[in-house]
Task: structure prediction
Amino acid sequence: MSPHSFQLRRISLPLLVFLALVVGRPPLRADTVYTNFGTGDAYASSAGVIVTNDGVAWSSVAVAFTPTANYNLSSIEFVVSDLIPDDSNDVTLGLFADNGGQPDATALEMFSMSPDGMFGDNLLVTTVSSILQPLLLADTQYWIGMNAAPGDLVVWNQNLTSATGFFETDGSGNWSAADPLQAQGVLEVDGTLSAVQPPVNSFNSSAPEPGAWLLMAGGLAALAFLRRRLNPR
Result:
């Protein structure tokens, strides 16, 4: 065996073990953080909340949600339709932290889009993907707010699952609770579990999860196999 071949094998051993561990890891999967969609993404095509722009009474609308674990935002799904056909049909959707029981003044991330069609039509669900992927902390309230272009009227189509309660602004941008019995705009928030998770007060909290055990076992098996190949008896 040449020195170069021996050196190559010495370098390849830890590299192959590393690749076995990395490649064997399952891909990150988006979980549903919050949803009020019905089965099969069902929503109300002929019922919704009118959204305009500040300067008009009851203009911006926001729905609150609270994650049960730490997530990084991946996407938001909703349905928005145009009430009056015009050219100024831009819609702004934002993720907001909570500030005293209402949306904070500064968004964590903003998205812009146009309604997919007219109110009353059966429209496709709109999905916006997060670029910033902000961290959503467990047991912490956040808001998804919608605003229309100045002078425009759009509709945030409502849900069919009896999810009620949202906030709206007056013409001066002041938030207040809407009728608690009024249905929320249809909404789904998806995210991937964050590597940063809240501590668990449990005796076994430091024990590896089953997936971690499988990864370690696979790495050790690969190491034993390669050792036998490099040192045949």
